[in-house]
Amino acid sequence: MTEQTAPTAPRPTHRRPAYDTTEVGTELPARTFPVTRETLVRYAGASGDFNPIHWSERFAKGVGLENVIAHGMFTMAEAARVVTDWAGDPGAVVEYGVRFTRQVVVPDDDEGALIEVAGKVAAKLDDEKVRVDLTVTCDGKKVLGMARAVVRLG
Amino acid sequence: MALDQSFVGRSYPPTDPYEVGREKIREFARAVGDDNPVYADTEAAKALGHPDVIAPPTFVFAITYRAAGQVVEDPQLGLDYSRVVHGDQKFSYTRPVRAGDRLTVTTTIESIKSMAGNDILDIRGEVHDEAGEHVVTAWTKLVARGPEEA
Hints:
CATH class of chain A: Alpha Beta
Organism (chain A): Streptomyces sulfonofaciens
Order of helices and strands of chain A: EHHHEEEE
Distance between the termini of chain A: 42 Å
CATH superfamily of the domain at 12-20 and 57-144 in chain B: Hotdog Thioesterase
Pfam families (chain A): MaoC_dehydratas (PF01575)
Shape of chain B: elongated
GO molecular function (chain A): fatty acid synthase activity
Number of strands of chain A: 5
Oligomer: heterodimer
Largest interface: A-B, 38 and 35 residues
CATH topology of chain A: Thiol Ester Dehydrase, Chain A
Protein name (chain A): MaoC family dehydratase
Structural class of chain A: alpha+beta
Structural class of chain B: alpha+beta
Region (Disordered) (chain A): 1-22
Helix content of chain B: 10-25%
Number of helices of chain A: 3
């Protein structure tokens, strides 16, 4: 049996951004992350969050949801990848926060849903840190608000 | 019914240590589709100055949220968990979580607000390693929706 992982783009080789040459407005490479029912089952197992709204259509609809929804923390994890891939070292993230504003509905088909993440440098801070603001959407609608990370650059 | 304000500032005893396993980190990174070698390859982690593989930034939530269960399930507080949704999440890191860490969480209720019939609970989880050094703080905002209007 081969191990399957969620699809990802090839990892670009890339130098860590330097604080001195990073400017406010610098855009981070945007990414699109597919999420299917299989992704959610896998994330449930890895994270220990087995709330049935993330895998049972019957249960989700029973509590008034349109359909099965992605774990908010899954979306938060995907959005972080735009920051950690750009920063080079995920350990450079010193703060990360989001507001869960809208659910990501995941239909039971091969395509699932697409989480689109864009980011840009919003402020240069002391101590070689920058603040990155993220825009996270699904079907053109924001699913995370106040999505911000503070990253220490070299 | 609004939650009892006297719970604001209450801290719960530190949890038993959670030992961070390298295979658990690898499983989590795979689940979010992240092939960054720093999560799976000790040499890659060392090349960035980490003593061992590190965990993705949101990995620690599974640990802090389990600890927050002390609040959510506190019968004296009386939160109706079936009405709870995750409002906000924030982390502040002193260093990344890494394989081999034995982490304890001390959970505190930071605030309780009542707004438009909803109870809004801010919970802080302070995560320390075995040496007692701070690793990360997690803030979790939970919103308990009020009963539907008749």
